Amino acid sequence: NKKAFVELLFWKSPATVYEMTKGYSSLQEGEGSTRSRVPPWTPQEEQELRELYWKYKEVEGGDIIAAILAQLPTPGRTRKQVVKQLVRM
Fold first, then answer.
1. Residues of the signal sequence (predicted)?
2. Which pTM was predicted?
3. Residue 36's pLDDT is what?
4. Calpha distance 13→72 (Å, rounded)
């Protein structure tokens, strides 16, 4: 690419640099992006999260998120994902 020097003037993510060196269609859809790896919340999971939040909300001195994580039927959710989803809801 004769004009690659112009592209080097701007900040690039690792995925963009990989595309620059290997070809612009080398990445598959969603590859190289951490956001696409997070599975979306299903309506059933949201309902369960809502119910668990209301169940543990009134517990004094307890960690609500830790209690919710222990009771979630879907393994693999992180604390950050649960907090973000609660805030979004």
1. none
2. 0.55
3. 52
4. 34
The CA-based dihedral angle spanning residues 8, 9, 13, 19, taken in that order and rounded to the nearest 10 degrees? -30
Nearest to 42, CA basis, from 66, 79, 72, 80: 72
Q: Nearest to residue 49, comparing CAs of 80, 86, 77?
A: 86
| For helices 79-88 and 43-56, angle between their N-to-C axes, nearest 10 degrees | 90
Distance of CA 26 to the CA centre of its chain: 23
For the chain, which residues make up each domain, given as ranges?
Answer: 3-26+38-88
Alpha-carbon distance of 73 to 89, in angstroms, equals 19
CA distance linking residue 73 with residue 62, whole number of Å: 20
